[in-house]
Amino acid sequence: MHWRDTLPDWYIDKYGYQPCVNIGTAGHVDHGKTTLIQALTGSWTSVHSQELKRGITIRVGYSDAAFYKCTSCEEPLGYSTTPKCNNCGGESELSRVVSFVDSPGHESLMANMLSGSALMDGALLLVAANEKVPRPQTKEHLLALQTLGIQQIVVVQNKVDLLSYKEALANYQDITKFVKGTHAAKAPIIPISAQSGLNVDALIGSIESNIKTPDRDEKQDTVMHVLRSFDVNKPGTKLKNIKGGVIGGSLTQGVFNVGDEIEIKPGILNKKKKTYEPLVTEITSLGTAAGIVESVKPGGLVAIGTKLDPSMTRSDSFIGSVIGKPGTLPENSTQLKLDVTLFDSAVGTTEDIKVQPIQTGELLRVNIGTAPLLGKVSKVKSKNVEIELRRPACIFEGGNVALSRRIDERWRLIGAGIVG
């Protein structure tokens, strides 16, 4: 039975047929992020052929789960992902539906992780109990979460079944030292085995207690950040049966309905004018994990069917775009003004490399929403930095931006900025 078939009226009235909160997974490659999501949702988020061959997550993956609470059992025994309690066999009530954002842990895919972080309301930070703490990407992901303002965190101590109690306790103490002074300093640390499902009920209970559903204002101008775009037509489809391009992402505020006119920024490149022009189209269909719907709200991955030529949306060509109602989004701009805070050391390097001040003329990678972009520093005055982007972006004032510098032939996270 799919969770959509168990939704009570109160949930449908408030959130519709979709998840109400986005929770990310972060941590070093092979520490069990995708395995944990499979244990919680029954879905394997690494579905692309290249991901399966390499055994790592490459793109940001989404998967949904409904959490239920037994009306009889004491916490945390009564939490499960099925309407029937795994502990006593009794009936359970829906707590909420959650969407998990599985981000890449490999260092070369950090830009993808940062893109996924832009849509997270909270996060699970996975740490493998059988490895040294912290591993490079564990540290980098935690700082990335902090950089992008994600404060609701649950630390997951995975693979405890591979250790003795004494070894697991020592690892727990190492984790406590590692998160000290960060947003995760007061986060609960839950020991589990994602492979066997050990203690998953306690983890669900901790998620429900510590990662709250944000208050959403449906009356605000709608904003959707794009993570995917594709052509759903199979080769050989007859012209009369061709469907328009599909765009996938997540709403952060507002509502979209079938039939709405939408604007996509920065749009597409006009080669003659050498400028990006926004696109205006109509929503022909809306989809969530529960199926085809008439309207969508913030929470989970949403698919928007459009009247765009499907060749325009294939191969994730719209990643990093922003969608809203016409005339409501910020104007395209290549000028980025930031109030910057640099880290003491570059993140993700094996050696401790001190972060040097940003210099005029240097090339940086910036993550604005779900868009990873390159830009050249045009002006530096104390903490105020101006960057000329190589291509325009739809930039929201007050937004968090991650900054990376090329170090040892990799883009390394060096700090964060707030758009001024």
From TrEMBL:
It is an enzyme of class 3 (hydrolase). It comes from the Archaea. Its EC number is 3.6.5.3. Gene3D superfamilies: P-loop containing nucleotide triphosphate hydrolases, Translation factors. It catalyses: GTP + H2O = GDP + phosphate + H(+). Pfam families: eIF2_C (PF09173), GTP_EFTU (PF00009). Residues 18-215 form the Tr-type G domain. GO terms for molecular function: GTP binding; GTPase activity; metal ion binding; translation initiation factor activity; tRNA binding. GO terms for cellular component: cytosol. Keywords: GTP-binding, Hydrolase, Initiation factor, Magnesium, Metal-binding, Nucleotide-binding, Protein biosynthesis. CDD domains: eIF2_gamma, eIF2_gamma_II, eIF2_gamma_III. One of its GO terms (biological process) is formation of translation preinitiation complex. InterPro entries: eIF2G, eIF2g_C, eIF2g_dom_2, eIF2g_GTP-bd, P-loop_NTPase, T_Tr_GTP-bd_dom, TIF2_gsu, Transl_B-barrel_sf. Belongs to the TRAFAC class translation factor GTPase superfamily. Classic translation factor GTPase family. EIF2G subfamily. PANTHER family: EUKARYOTIC TRANSLATION INITIATION FACTOR 2 SUBUNIT 3 FAMILY MEMBER, EUKARYOTIC TRANSLATION INITIATION FACTOR 2 SUBUNIT 3-RELATED. This is protein-synthesizing GTPase. It comes from Marine Group I thaumarchaeote SCGC AAA799-N04.
